[in-house]
Design goal:
Largest sheet: 7 strands, antiparallel
Strand content: 35-45%
CATH architecture of the domain at 61-167: Roll
Structural class: alpha+beta
CATH topology of the domain at 61-167: Nuclear Transport Factor 2, Chain: A
Helix content: 10-25%
Number of strands: 15
Number of helices: 4
Distance between the termini: 84 Å
Radius of gyration: 28 Å
CATH class of the domain at 61-167: Alpha Beta
Order of helices and strands: HHHEEEEHEEEEEEEEEEE
């Protein structure tokens, strides 16, 4: 009985229509697999790259600031914000003069004013807000592009969604919002004078999580890192002892150097490729960062 069944199976021959249907199905399957592979490749490529906001916008922050100043009739620029909204780049500039607050929204693609609003300030203006122009970017030694680059390196890369430069009481500060390559949104604050990161990363979960520092408490670590433009040896002068983690991150967010329980006051960086780097020093719950250029 088994022999007869075997003979019958061998003797079965598919018709031409069956051959055609099978070949068509195979071609469709191969095409679907190819399209899916290309889609995955494009997603991986996007996740692996940094997406800049400043480099993509046609209208520079400097031009947007001057457009707003001309419209407001001069004054003190308090805030410049650049945001990516779907397929549009939008600037929002706040100016104060003669006891009035001016809010100007500008299209980042062509410099056209989208909206202009003027209102009387409830609080009496200071003498510096009464007359004369005060450019906000002139008070910042760090450019929008450099702040963006520093923030991307700090979070390990991603897509820049928003950059805000704001004049505070005794400080000019950048706040950069980034969607990192894992899809999480992070905000990084940067001192616009020194270019250093002044915000701390979120606490880690788990038993080894460091306890939060009390409000207004000074960081446990302060260091003098020099020179800012270095060829071989970078000095890390400090009054405290061992660094828990020393990390050097390149402009793309990749860790170029990582050392734990670092005790020396110098580190040789001669093997690094020329470019801009972020030095991150961690001790307990505290993290401080310093930017330097490798020649």
């Amino acid at each position: 009985m088994l022999k007869q069944i075997s003979v019958k199976l061998v003797g079965v021959r598919p018709t031409f229509g069956q051959f055609s249907a099978t070949a068509t199905s195979a071609r469709i399957l191969r095409s679907c697999m190819l399209i899916f592979a290309l889609f995955l490749g494009s997603v991986c490529l996007l996740n692996a790259q940094n997406v800049s906001l400043v480099r993509d916008v046609p209208v520079s922050p400097d031009r947007a600031e001057r457009i707003a100043l001309d419209l407001a009739g001069g004054g003190m620029v308090m805030e410049i914000e650049l945001e990516r909204k779907q397929q549009q780049f939008v600037y929002e500039v706040e100016i104060r003069n003669n006891g009035s607050k001016h809010e100007v929204k500008i299209d980042g693609a062509n410099g056209e004013v989208i909206r202009y609003k003027s209102s009387v300030m409830k609080k009496q203006p200071t003498p510096s807000q009464i007359s004369g122009n005060s450019l906000l970017q002139a008070a910042a030694r760090t450019s929008f592009a450099r702040a963006e680059e520093t923030a991307l390196a700090f979070v390990g890369g991603g897509t820049v969604l928003e950059i805000e430069l704001e004049r505070k009481i005794q400080q000019v500060v950048y706040e950069v919002e980034i969607r990192n390559n894992s899809g999480r949104k992070q905000k990084v604050k940067i001192d616009a004078q020194t270019g250093e990161v002044i915000s701390r990363p979120p606490a880690q979960n788990g038993n080894n999580a460091a306890a939060p520092r009390a409000n207004n408490a000074a960081p446990a670590l302060q260091a003098n890192v020099f020179p800012t433009s270095v060829t071989d040896v970078l000095n890390i002068s400090r009054t405290w002892g061992t660094i828990d983690v020393l990390e050097i991150v390149d402009a793309n967010g990749r860790a170029a150097v990582t050392q734990r329980n670092f005790a020396p006051e110098t580190i040789n960086v001669s093997s690094l490729t020329p470019g801009i780097y972020i030095l991150k020093l961690t001790k307990g719950a505290d993290v401080v960062t310093y930017r330097f250029t490798k020649n």
